[in-house]
Amino acid sequence: MDLIYRPRRLRRTEPVRTLVRETTLSVGDFIYPMFVTGGEGAKEPIDSMPGQFRYSVDELVNECREIWNLGIGAVNLFGFSAEKDEQATMAYAGDGLVQHAIRALKDALPDLCVQTDLALDPYTTHGHDGLVIDGEIANDESVAVLCKMALSHAEAGVDWVTPSDMMDGRVGAIRTALDDDRFEHVSIMAYSAKYASCFYGPFRGALKSAPVKQSGIPEDKKTYQMDPGNAREALREMALDIEEGADVVMVKPALPYLDVIARAREAFDVPIAAYNVSGEYGMVLAAAEKGWADRDRAMVETLTGIKRAGADMILTYFAKDMAKLLDS
Question: Catalytic pick from 84, 221, 252, 320?
Answer without folding.
Answer: 252
